[in-house]
Amino acid sequence: MLSKCANPDCHEALHYLRAGKVFKVEFDGPVLVTGKKPIRKVEHFWLCGPCSETQTLTYDQIHGVRVLQKPPMVRRAAAS
After folding, report:
1. Domain assignments of the chain as residue spans, ordered by start
2. Long-range contacts of 65-74 (CB under 8 A, 24+ apart)
3. Torsion angle (degrees, nearest 10) of CA 20, 26, 27, 30
4. Nearest-CA neighbor of 43 among 30, 26, 28, 58?
5. What tens digit of pLDDT does each residue of 23-76 get?
6. Does residue 63 or residue 80 have the better pLDDT?
């Protein structure tokens, strides 16, 4: 169950899903029967509104789930 922001530096409690962003992460589990597909494990993570504006989540098998800064937005001038 989601209870707080996934950013370890943030202590915002989850009250409403509409405030922030939910991430679904699928992990490959062990193969229980030879030749069969691995079991998929699914976990959900939530970033609160302020954290989701500047950060995102990523997953890799070495580091697991990590919070990363989003790249800065590049704004272009409107064509006249």
Report:
1. 21-69
2. 65/6, 65/25, 67/6, 67/7, 67/8
3. 150
4. 26
5. 998 877 666 666 666 677 889 999 999 999 999 999 888 888 899 999 887 666
6. 63
